[in-house]
Amino acid sequence: MKLKFLKVSGVIAAVGILGACGTGSSNTDSDGNEVETITFINHKTDWEGNGKWDEYMAEFNEKYPNINVEIQTITDYAGQVKTRMNSKEYGDLLMIPGDINPQDYSTFFEPLGDKSELSEKYLGLNDRSYQGISYGIPTQMNATGMVVNMQVFKDAGIEDFPKTPEDFIEALEMIKENDEDVTPLYTNYAAGWTLSNWDFVRAGAAGDADFTNKMTSDPAPFSDGKIMNTIYSTLYQASSKGLIEADPTTTDWEQSKIDLANGKIGVMVLGSWAVPQIQEANPDNAENITFQAFPMTAPDGKQYMGVGGDYNLGINVNSEHKEAARKLLDWLVNESDYAKDNGGLPSLIGAEYPDSLKDSQAAGVELLEENPAPEGKESLFSDINNQSELGIGSTDNEKQRMIDSAIGNTSESFDAIMDDFNSRWSNAIEAVSGN
Questions:
Q1: Which residue range(s) make up the domain with 44?
Q2: CATH number of the domain where residue 75 is located
Q3: What is the pLDDT of residues 114-136, one digit of tens each?
Q4: How many domains does the chain have?
Q5: pTM for the whole thing?
Q6: Scanning 29, 68, 126, 257, which has its CA 20 to 30 A from the CA of 203?
Q7: CB under 8 Å to 258, separation ≥6 — which residues?
Q8: E strands, 277-326, where?
């Protein structure tokens, strides 16, 4: 099926030529067979530009010729979709925004099945399941760690990627000393979402699949010597030592990918999904771009990378074409190359590691998926996080606050920020659980 792309109210919509238009419509083809048109809303705006969605939907229609898929790609995905979710008009199939409260899943999304049964086939079901029911399946699994231009490190005399925060900071200093025109660590402060990756490394850095669950009962998880403090301290030290971009408030996400590919940046904290995007920015130097674990070693002497689901595919509970939407969901997850093409690990159990993770696999880094919350506490971390307004894993304000402090834009100290975090977290635990 050939798709034509139209710009509608800031949204790029790929509209099939099979005739039906609008969400949840039906029509018939020349043979009298019913053709359903469903709307799939997603964040892959780059695929609108490079024709990937054309290719994917043409392949989908080879199997399901009577399902016409209208693609809508949105740049500010989470914000715009959450606004649309105030009505019933948020497509038939969509990528579930990350900060929907678990207890609200059933209000917005169709149940996909029993979690225990689906877990025999898929990874990453913890995030979008509630009370034993799954409402989303990950498009792919991502590891979170460091996207690295290893040639930059080698040029500075560093052959192996550091395994401790101290060695990491020292390596960044060596890069800066070797070439002042290179930014050792690029924070992407202004992008509006990238700094959340510093939160997502927590379980891998700890080597503990129950780390997030344990945070719900720890009144002071940001104290000196604890994992969250060490992660944030690494960001703070790099910033205070001038090892990040000169003016963080003017960072440019798209340009940063090009600069990392071209050796003007040493490292960025991101998900493994970013590797192919950066490699595509300079295919001649693609072999220089590797994916490494956050520079911490767990108490057992191993290194881990936390792995979790990317955007989950969910079905609008208000959809009039849920069966067709489920066919597209299953095809994307089970049969398409979506995960591979995006540098991720397929959510299907037993799938092959993507190229972006094979370097880490060869180095002995183990992938770690966090354990689900205990029954009855599925929303506890989310509730405490929301109550504290720290935005762990969802907003960048507090990470920006650390950087502002480190570079002298504010007068508060790192210790004062961590004390504030502990106070807010402790108060939130008490407010939410009464402990």
A1: 34-140+308-359
A2: 3.40.190.10
A3: 999 999 999 999 889 999 999 99
A4: 1
A5: 0.79
A6: 257
A7: 281, 282
A8: 289-292, 304-309, 312-315
